[in-house]
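Quick one, C-alpha cells below:
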C-alpha cells in the first residue's frame, strides 16, 4: 500500500488544532510541522504533488514520538502515528534507507544470536570507553544522525548489562506455583537492557502459572513498523507466528507495553496470508500486558515490606503511563489499583502521567535535544509529587526515566511494576 491509498484518512483532519495542546513535540518546539495538523498537511501536499520527496522531509516525518496523544485528542480520530509509519516507508523507498536501518532490521532483529553478540559488543564498547575512542578515530563515519547524536545519547545508560535475560534464564518451560499455562514473550529491551526487571517478571509469573514458558521469540516488529519498513515488519511477524503456538497457553504475557500493544495489533497488519492471520488473531486474543496480569490476577500481599527506601523512610510511589499502555491498550486503572493496594506504599498521582517521557524506543539516538526537552517536563512533574519511587512498565521508559532522574539529581528510584510487586511478595 502507498501513502496515496490513505488519502481519505488524511483528509479527515479538520485543522481544529486540538492536537497542539497534547503534543509533546509541539510544546517543545512551537513549530506547526511538529504537530499532527502540520504533519497531515505535509502528507496531503505530497499526495497531491505540491511537494516533492526530498531529504528535507526527514525531520518532520521522523521527529514524531508516535505517542498517540494527537489521536486521543482528535474528534475524527485521525491515526496520525500509523499514517506517519506509512509515510516513512515511502520516504525510504524514494530517498534511500540508512545503513543502520538495514543492519538492524535485516541482519540483527530476526536473529537472536547475532542480536545478542551485538549487544555484548555494545556493552564492552560502552562500559570500557571503546566507543568514545572509536569516534575520536573517525571509525563510525557513514551512519548519519544516529552516530552524530551518539556521544550524548550514550549517557542514557550508565552501564550496559553483560548478560541478557535469556542468557540467565534459557528459553524453556518452567514449573510454577499457580494454575495457568503462561508464556513469557521477552521483548528486546527487557532482554538486553533491563534483564533484572525481566527476571522479576519471570519470578512473578511463576507464582501465577502452573507452567511458564520463556519463549525464543524474535523482536515483535514494532521498531521496523515505526521506522517504515513493512517488509522487515512482515518477516518478524511471520517468524513469531511460526515460533509461538498461542493455543498451547492460557495467556502470552509480556512486560513491554510496546510489544503487548503491537502483538495485539498483529491481525490488523496488511499482507498476511489467511493462515497467519488466523494465528495472529489467536495470539492477539491471548496476549496480556504484565500490567493486566499483575493487576487482575495477583492477590495483594497482607503485610508491608521494607522494600526500596531507606530504613524508616516512607515509600511514596508514583506511576508513569507508557504510551503503548495508556493509549495503545487503554490500561489506566490496573497499575494504579495495584499500587494503591500495596501495604506500606503511599501512592501519589503524577501530573501529566500519560505524557510521553521522550523515550519512544531509540528516539534519543536521532533526536537527543528534543528527547531531553520532553524528558525535562516529565522530571518537573516527578519532582512535584515528592515521590521516592517512580514506577512504569516499559523498557524504553525505564531507560529514559532513569536518565532523567540522574540528570536532575533526584532522590528517586525508577523501577518496573514487576520489580515492585516481586519485592512486596518475596
Amino acid at each position: 500500500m502507498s501513502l496515496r491509498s490513505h488519502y481519505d484518512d488524511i483528509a479527515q483532519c479538520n485543522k481544529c488544532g486540538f492536537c497542539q495542546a497534547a503534543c509533546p513535540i509541539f510544546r517543545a518546539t512551537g513549530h506547526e510541522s511538529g504537530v499532527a495538523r502540520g504533519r497531515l498537511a505535509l502528507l496531503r501536499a505530497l499526495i497531491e504533488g505540491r511537494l516533492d520527496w526530498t531529504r528535507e522531509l526527514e525531520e518532520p516525518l521522523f521527529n514524531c514520538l508516535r505517542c498517540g496523544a494527537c489521536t486521543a485528542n482528535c474528534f475524527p480520530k485521525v491515526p496520525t502515528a500509523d499514517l506517519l509509519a506509512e509515510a516513512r516507508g515511502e520516504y525510504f523507498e524514494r530517498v534511500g534507507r540508512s545503513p543502520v536501518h538495514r543492519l538492524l532490521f535485516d541482519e540483527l532483529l530476526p536473529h537472536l544470536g547475532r542480536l545478542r553478540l551485538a549487544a555484548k559488543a555494545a556493552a564492552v564498547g560502552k562500559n570500557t570507553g571503546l566507543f568514545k575512542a572509536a569516534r575520536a578515530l573517525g571509525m563510525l563515519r557513514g551512519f548519519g544522525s544516529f552516530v552524530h547524536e551518539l556521544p550524548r545519547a550514550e549517557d542514557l545508560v550508565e552501564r550496559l548489562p553483560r548478560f541478557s535475560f535469556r542468557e540467565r534464564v534459557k528459553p524453556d518451560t518452567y514449573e510454577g506455583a499457580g494454575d495457568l499455562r503462561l508464556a513469557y514473550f521477552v521483548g528486546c529491551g527487557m532482554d538486553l537492557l533491563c534483564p533484572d526487571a525481566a527476571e522479576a517478571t519471570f519470578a512473578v509469573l511463576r507464582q501465577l502459572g502452573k507452567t511458564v514458558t520463556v519463549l525464543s521469540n524474535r523482536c515483535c516488529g514494532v521498531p521496523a513498523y515505526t521506522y517504515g519498513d513493512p517488509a522487515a515488519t512482515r518477516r518478524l511477524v511471520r517468524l513469531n507466528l511460526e515460533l509461538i503456538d498461542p493455543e498451547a497457553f492460557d495467556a502470552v504475557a509480556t512486560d513491554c507495553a510496546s510489544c503487548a500493544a503491537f502483538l495485539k495489533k498483529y491481525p490488523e497488519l496488511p499482507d498476511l496470508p489467511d493462515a497467519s492471520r488466523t494465528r495472529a488473531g489467536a495470539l492477539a486474543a491471548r496476549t496480556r500486558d504484565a500490567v493486566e496480569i499483575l493487576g487482575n490476577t495477583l492477590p495483594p500481599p497482607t503485610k508491608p515490606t521494607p522494600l526500596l527506601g531507606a530504613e524508616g523512610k516512607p515509600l511514596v510511589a508514583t506511576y508513569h503511563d507508557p504510551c503503548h499502555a495508556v493509549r495503545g491498550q487503554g490500561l489506566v486503572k490496573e497499575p494504579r489499583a495495584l499500587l494503591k493496594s500495596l501495604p506500606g506504599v503511599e501512592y501519589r498521582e503524577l501530573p501529566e502521567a500519560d505524557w510521553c517521557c521522550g523515550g519512544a524506543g531509540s528516539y534519543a539516538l536521532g533526536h537527543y535535544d528534543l528527547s531531553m526537552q520532553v524528558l525535562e517536563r516529565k522530571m518537573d512533574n516527578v519532582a512535584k509529587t515528592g515521590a521516592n519511587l517512580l514506577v512504569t512498565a516499559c523498557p524504553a521508559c525505564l531507560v529514559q526515566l532513569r536518565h532523567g532522574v540522574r540528570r536532575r539529581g533526584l532522590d528517586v528510584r525508577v523501577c518496573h511494576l514487576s520489580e515492585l510487586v516481586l519485592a512486596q511478595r518475596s
